Amino acid sequence: MTSARTYTVALVQMRMGPDPEANFTVALDRIREAARGGAQIVCLPELFRTQYFCQREELALFDLAEPIPGPSTERLSALARELRVSIVASLFERRAPGLYHNTAVTLNAHGELASVYRKMHIPDDPLYYEKYYFTPGDLGFRAVDLEVGRVGTLVCWDQWYPEGARLTALQGAEVLFYPTAIGWHPAEKEEFGTAQYEAWQTIQRSHAIANGLYVVAANRVGMEQGDILGNRAEGAGLEFWGGSFIADPFGRMIAKASHDKEEILVATVDLRLIEETRRNWPFLRDRRIDAYAPITRRFLDPTQDREPQ
Asked: N or C terminus: which one in the chain shows less Cβ crowding within 10 Å?
């Protein structure tokens, strides 16, 4: 890898319909459009091939999964080679019978499978029944060298955990990509919607600040009821809030999408800004790595962890 002083990243914010093939075609078109805009790395939203099927628990939906490498990576690989761009894409992985993952692949500009990341944190909330479908990742957090720079990928619920961002940054990542599918429950939007979106944005901007790197959060947009295979979830569904963004190492929003439109965001990664920011905010220098061992504990019970008198 030859690391340029600057390179260009992009995200695709898109809405998904009931036809997986139509969604895939749109995603490929958006990657082409981003490449025409100068993008060297393009990130798609989480599970972009379908509407968000985890709104319900249904055995037949496991048929949506595919091996990696497999049909989707082959098509994405061909496009990466053609356009000479790297692609970050989230897929429903069939690893073995009865073993499935929510997996993000990174393809380099030669169309090679540069990295596979399996989502580590799996949510289980109303209309986000991911534990039914996905096994937690077992590949750890990782950064990968691409032609233009070193990047890391995490997926959606991972974005709330500073540990994942930090461990990826410590491997030299200059950019953290977060393919995402997050939205509002319609009945909660009026009361909690603004606070929920701002919390989501704030936690990821904090990863940019704490680690002195760029963050790219690519969300989907639009109302969905998991309309797939001629069936859909009951109730009002989810309104995916879009609001995708790119933040710089100072946590500043350098590109931001709307809440209701399909958009492509493009931004420049400047390695000199990473260096400058880390010199002024030397969080990596001042980390007390001798004092962090308890972070691997689930919880610290004050009645059992007192220092001896």
From this structure: C
> How many domains, in total, are found in the chain?
1
CATH number at residue 50: 3.60.110.10
Residue range 233-254: mean pLDDT, rounded: 96
Dump pLDDT digits (tens) for 256-270. Answer: 999 999 999 999 999
Is residue 46 among the annotated active site residues?
yes
Q: Of residues 43, 130, 147, 156, which has the active-site annotation?
A: 156
Instruction: Tell me which residue range forms the domain holding 17.
Output: 6-296
Q: Is residue 258 part of a domain?
A: yes
Is residue 182 within 8 A of residue 130, CB to CB? The reply is no
* pLDDT for the residue 234: 86
Q: What is the CA 252 to chain-centroid distance, rounded?
A: 19
Per the residue annotation, which of 43, 46, 130, 147 is the catalytic one? 46
If phi over 0 gives left and psi between -120 and 50 gives alpha, with beta otherwise, what is residue 47?
Answer: left
Is 119 labeled as catalytic in the residue annotation?
Answer: yes
For tokens 């990295």, the residue is: 115
Q: Does 1 fall in a domain?
A: no
Please tell me the distance from the alpha carbon of residue 16 to that of residue 129, in angstroms, as a whole number.
19
Element containing residue 75 per DSSP (H, E):
helix 71-83
Residues 168, 141: contact at Cβ < 8 Å? yes
Q: What are phi and psi of 298, to 5 degrees?
A: -65, -40
